[in-house]
Amino acid sequence: SQQGEEDPQALSIQEGENATMNCSYKTSINNLQWYRQNSGRGLVHLILIRSNEREKHSGRLRVTLDTSKKSSSLLITASRAADTASYFCATGLRSGGYNKLIFGAGTRLAVHP
Amino acid sequence: ETGVTQTPRHLVMGMTNKKSLKCEQHLGHNAMYWYKQSAKKPLELMFVYSLEERVENNSVPSRFSPECPNSSHLFLHLHTLQPEDSALYLCASSQEGLALYNEQFFGPGTRLTVL
Asked: Which among A64, A82, A58, A52 has a CA at the least distance from the CA of A23?
C-alpha cells in the first residue's frame, strides 16, 4: 500500500521564490529520502534524513521530519527554472536485509523565469 | 550520470512479443531493483535482488521474469504483455550491508509501450 503522500500534487512558482513540498506517511520508518525526477528520466537522490533527526540542510535544500506527526517537508530556497521537476519522498525501513523504499506519488514543481 | 545504465531507452512491442530489458550498474553495489512507474501513480517496487538472490517479488504477474546473473547486471524478461503494462521501467542499485540507511541510484529508465 502507498506509504508516502506528497502535497501539493502540483506547484507553480516564479524564479527566486521558495518552494515547499510536504510528505505524510503511515507506518514506522528509520529514514526518509527525497528524490528528484526530470521528465521521463530516472530519479536522483537529493537528501536523506534519519528518523532520529529533525532537520537537515544541503545547499538550497532544507528537509524537516516530524515523526510524531509522520510528516516531512522539503524546502527549496531561491528557486531556479532548472529546479523544474517532480519531487518524491520515499520512506525507508529495513526489510529482508535491505533498505526498502516506498515512494509517494510526487509533487510536480514548475519554476517560471 | 548515476552509474546505472539501462537499455533500450524506448521499446514498442506487441502483446505476443518477447523482449528483455537490461540494466547495468558500475558502482560496485550488491543490490539491484526493478520499479514500474505508470502515469499518475507512485513508483511500484517489482523485484529486489540482494547478493544476486531475489529477496522480494511484489506480486508481479508471471509475464515479467527477472534475472540477475551477477551483481552488476539485471534483466527483466517480458512476454505476452498487456497494454496496461505500458510504463517507464526503472532500475536502481544500492550498497546494502550493516548500515540502516542507503540511498538508491537510478538508471534513466526504459519507456515501454505495449500495443
From this structure: A64
